[in-house]
Amino acid sequence: MARIVAVDIFRVDYRLRHPSVVAYESLETAPNVAVRIELDSGEVGWGNAAPDEHVTGETAETVERTLREVFGPILPGAEASDIAAIWQTLRALAPAEPAALAAIDIALHDLQARAVGLPLVSMLKWNRQHRDTVRWNRREIPTTVTLSIDTMAANIARTRDYLAEGFRALKIKCGNDPEADIERIRAIRREAGSGIKLTLDANQGYDVETTLRVIDALSDCAIDFIEQPVPATNLAALAEICARSPIPVMADESILGVDDVLATPAPLINLKLMKMGGLTGAMQCNAAAESRGIGTMIGCMDESRISMAAAAHLALALSNVVSADLDGHIDIIDDMASEGIIIESGNVTVTDRPGLGVVVNDRR
């Protein structure tokens, strides 16, 4: 393709329209670090990191430092099309910085798809077909939209807003106060009606018995699944819940790589580009999940459209993806990127422009 001549880093702390409140933190801003890779051909590709210290141990400061001091100096001169080799090299240099790696990996995929004149989803589908002859023609995928831990009134008001916008799947954050969670979730179900999909995400906030008590109390609320109810390192607790729960359990924070996929007792896992080291790592984990009969969801942090577009392209490309949580950009104020990912009536699609399809303003 061409060789890398420059890597530019842009730290942006985005304000959020609504606070993001989960069991382990409350945020009013979303620190992101964008990456611009330029080739000797003049082509430019974009990537983005959205670190979460509670999930991978990274902060915006560590990500920015890794990009500037570790990855940035060694990338110029590298053949941009050799994504797998670059990914392995960077992973070895900074194994505990998957969000930083994701930013580079996304930019390289953006460049590769631009080079062949295809939207990223089309390139990923072609690669998959070329490898195993699987044909997959998904053009859109429904996404959940998140209700943070908040007052009953605020959650009900936002439920009404989301339903009016056409969303048909709600992810409800919980994990701090089980009794309040039960009351709030039941009220959301009453407001949403029976035709709306509800999922729960406790973000490691419960123990085994609390999880099962909450699930039992909500047995008439048609909950699709519960995500990461117990601490990420407690696989025994997760296994017990999986064995005893009447609804499926999804692993999230406990899945950071292929080894975790192979070890998880959960029938569902959440793949986030920021945890997996970008598209390359996510596709490795998806393949491992597929080999075990585990369904995957493509999820997100609070992210710029740059990386959200990459996640959307991936969700549309893989047949093993059974659900999507691709709302990470909708509360971002003054995103440096536009377009790329499209949500209409609760369904995610992407543009047909080459690469990620995003338009980036790096003069903001």
Question: Summary?
Answer:
By secondary structure, the chain is an alpha/beta fold. The protein is built from 13 helices and 16 strands. A hairpin with a 2-residue loop joins strand 1 (4-22) and strand 2.
Please specify the SSE layout and strand pairing.
Elements: E1 4-22, E2 25-39, E3 44-49, H1 53-56, H2 60-74, H3 83-93, H4 98-115, H5 120-132, E4 141-142, E5 145-147, H6 152-164, E6 169-173, H7 178-192, E7 197-201, H8 208-217, E8 223-227, H9 235-244, E9 249-251, H10 258-263, E10 268-271, H11 273-276, H12 279-291, E11 295-298, H13 305-317, E12 321-324, E13 337-339, E14 341-344, E15 347-350, E16 358-360
Parallel strand pairs: 5-6, 6-7, 7-8, 8-9, 9-10, 10-11, 11-12
Antiparallel strand pairs: 1-2, 2-3, 4-15, 13-16, 14-15
CATH fold annotation of the largest domain: TIM Barrel
Number of helices: 13
Based on DSSP secondary structure assignment, what is the total number of beta strands? 16
- What portion of the residues fall into strands of 2 or more residues? 15-25%
Instruction: Tell the overall outline.
Output: globular
CATH homologous superfamily title of the largest domain: Enolase-like C-terminal domain
- Provide the low-confidence segments as ranges: 129-135
How big is the Rg?
A: 20 Å
Mean pLDDT: 95
Largest sheet: 8 strands, parallel
- Helix vs. strand class: alpha/beta
